[in-house]
């Protein structure tokens, strides 16, 4: 099995045309013709992850977050990014990223969130006009109405996280919610327009949260990691039929909660 074969399978599931213009997806480092025997699946692809891949003897890293977002003007081996690139090259490790294309895919990150919360009547929050059924965020009805406080507790359990933030009246009854992995504050007006009483997302800023609550929607900020780390399960489903040995990264949230 070659790198290009694995890339083709991932891009069948999450077409690169779904990615936002600012994003960086596909084969970011390596040789498309290289043979792959072991794959490390991960949310991130930083130096620690690359060291983990090398230690496990992996030939390929399949990551949600790209290694490079902005133009790289220099590679210095005394800097973190340079060390990461050097380690990849020395160990013949390729890197594939499926980011916003995986977020927007019909059965990608956001669809996965809707499934985890067992939402019914699911709709795409911001639909891609060229790909019906694809787009950013999902909207749906909870199995039963519950208060914001209880939905916050449910979110912790569903996502397997130790803490989160809520904004809005904790006794507000929620029956319809939006879910959007990562940083999705810009689509909150769409959630309000679709009649959601809450949105579950991550990386909310102070003032935009105030604006959201004042606009009549409650906010659950479960963090970037919390709302996206289930992407590893999605990658596993895509790659399992290929018969290549895969490992789940030991990558954890960069943040921890002190209560």
Commentary on this structure:
The chain is α/β, with parallel strands linked by helices and 259 residues long. The chain has ten helices and eleven strands. The strands form two sheets. It has a six-stranded mixed sheet with strand order 5-6-8-9-10-7, sandwiched between helices. Strands 1-4-3-2-11 form a five-stranded mixed sheet, sandwiched between helices. Helix 8 links the parallel strand 9 and strand 10. Helix 2 packs parallel to helix 3. The longest helix is centred in the middle third of the chain and has 12 residues. It is globular and about 55 Å long. 41% of the residues are buried. The mean pLDDT is 96.
Compact overview of the structure:
33% of the residues lie in helices and 25% in strands. With 259 residues, it is α/β, with parallel strands linked by helices.
List the helices and strands and how they pair.
Layout lengths: L2 H11 L12 E4 L8 E5 L4 H9 L4 E4 L16 H11 L3 E4 L2 H5 L4 H8 L3 E8 L7 E13 H12 L5 E3 L5 E11 L4 H6 L4 E5 L3 H9 L3 E4 L2 H5 L2 H9 L5 E4 L11
Parallel strand pairs: 2-3, 2-11, 3-4, 8-9, 9-10
Antiparallel strand pairs: 1-4, 5-6, 6-8, 7-10
Helix pairs in contact: 2-3
